[in-house]
């Protein structure tokens, strides 16, 4: 009797874990799609205005200053 209950609880836990893994997998996939889309959008802006947004270029002719 107790063995059957334990078995059912383990199966429920496994099913719950599988559902969670599936949700996480879908969320990760959607996040990757969104980030790729954002990167494509940024690359279009960056190519039209070269040099914009560079923090390391202070206008000095000598590097390291």
How would you sum up this structure, described in words?
- The radius of gyration is 26 Å and the shape is elongated.
- The mean pLDDT is 81.
- It has one helix at 2-48.
- The protein contains one helix and no strands.
- Helices cover 72% and strands 0% of the residues.
- With 65 residues, the chain is mostly helical.
What attributes characterize this protein structure?
65 residues, mainly alpha, 72% helix, elongated
CA radius of gyration? 26 Å
Q: Helix tally? A: 1
The residue ranges in which pLDDT falls below 50 over 5 or more consecutive positions are none
Helix content: over 70%
Structural class: mainly alpha
Distance between the termini: 78 Å
What is the overall shape? elongated
Mean pLDDT: 81
What percentage of the residues does DSSP assign to strands (E)? Answer: under 5%
Element-by-element helix/strand order: H
Q: How does the major sheet shape up? A: none
Say how many strands there are: 0
Quaternary structure state of the chains depicted: single chain
